[in-house]
Design brief:
It comes from Candidatus Epulonipiscium fishelsonii. The protein is mainly alpha-helical. Helices cover 78% and strands 0% of the residues. It has one domain: Orthogonal Bundle (ABC transporter involved in vitamin B12 uptake, BtuC).
């Protein structure tokens, strides 16, 4: 049964990607999209209904955008699955640990100093280090307040630090209005205008981060049952928290640095995947990547068509679904 579910999710991923490439101001059917891609990659003969305009739209505009959405969604979902397991809280995400706020602050500092914000190497470096530094500060402060580094302490410190960083960004916004317009646009979240080089970089970083977390899936499985149980089974809980949270932060930071802050994917995807596939992280992590990618591509499609020809911020679309889902999890958790 597990294999059937995996195959279904893989096939659904392919269908959603083809739809993501085809949907827009000019609709191109999934068959035509697939034909164009096969023609470009393997010189397959084009069918009669495909025009030069269709080829240009698919290959030069929508393909990179859709694949970028899928990869970013997968990276955020993987990061969320790790954070939720480490902190034993289904509401844990990059927001609750301040990773998103830290990445925004890093981007703001670059813009203020007139650095090349859109340099292809600057973006991931800033994202990774901003995310990791934020989580580093959270863990240090949490360890000072609570020697045992209880999960609720880490979450509380993360939320307070996130509010503090957002306050700093607000001050910067008031002081440097002209420069900060670029940051505001970035914070809205968008997959438009991304280059193949950016897609390659974020894909490589996501694969590396995913493999690290898959390698640590045994520790994640044990920590799901509680820190005491994990410790009794030979897991160095504090060390595992450091490695897993820093890895998840690096994965999130590198992802959002390319496209801006897009919330709730890292909250929704792991929760749904665990309901379908169970709690084993060797399965949860790759399936979260697929489901997160599907969710993000669907959100990007809606962002393009709801107010056509205006593109809505993708983060606004994910929030429309994510906020009610957050409340559902919260009240369900409270009832238990």
């Amino acid at each position: 049964m597990l294999r059937v579910k995996v195959v279904i999710l893989i096939l659904l991923s392919i269908v959603v990607i083809l739809l993501g490439i085809g949907v827009g101001s000019t609709f191109i059917s999934p068959i035509e999209v697939g034909n164009i891609i096969l023609n470009k990659l393997f010189r397959v003969k084009l069918i009669s209904t495909v025009s030069d305009t269709d080829i240009s739209i698919v290959w030069n505009l929508r393909l990179i955008r859709t694949l970028m959405a899928f990869v970013i969604g997968g990276a955020l979902a993987i990061s969320g699955s790790a954070m939720q397991s480490v902190l034993q809280n289904p509401l844990a995400s990059s927001y609750t640990l301040g990773v998103s706020a830290g990445a925004s602050l890093g981007a703001g500092l670059i813009i203020i100093n007139s650095a090349s914000f859109f340099d292809i190497f600057t973006i991931p470096v800033v994202g990774i280090f901003s995310g990791m530094i934020t989580v580093f500060v959270v863990i240090i402060l949490a360890s000072k307040l609570d020697k045992n580094m209880q999960n609720y302490t880490i979450i509380l410190v993360g939320m307070v630090l996130s509010l503090f960083i957002n306050a700093i960004i607000t001050v910067f916004n008031a002081m440097f209005r002209e420069n900060m317009q670029q940051l505001i646009f970035w914070q809205m979240g968008s997959f438009a205008g991304k280059s193949p080089e950016e897609l390659i970089i974020v894909t490589i970083l996501s694969i590396i981060g995913s493999l690290i977390l898959v390698f640590k899936s045994r520790e994640l499985d044990m920590m799901t049952f509680g820190e005491t149980q994990a410790f009794s089974m030979g897991v160095d809980v504090k060390k595992a928290k450091w490695i897993l949270l820093m890895g998840a932060a690096a994965l999130t930071g590198s992802a959002i640095s390319f496209v801006g802050i897009i919330g709730f994917v890292d909250l929704i995807a792991p929760h749904v995947v665990r309901r379908i596939f169970g709690a084993r992280h060797s399965i949860v992590i790759p399936m979260s990547a697929l489901f997160g990618g599907i969710f993000m591509v669907c959100a990007d499609i809606l962002a393009r068509v709801i107010l056509r020809p205006i593109d809505l911020p993708v983060g606004a679309v994910t929030a429309l679904f994510g906020a009610p889902f957050f409340m559902y999890i919260f009240f369900r958790k409270e009832r238990r």
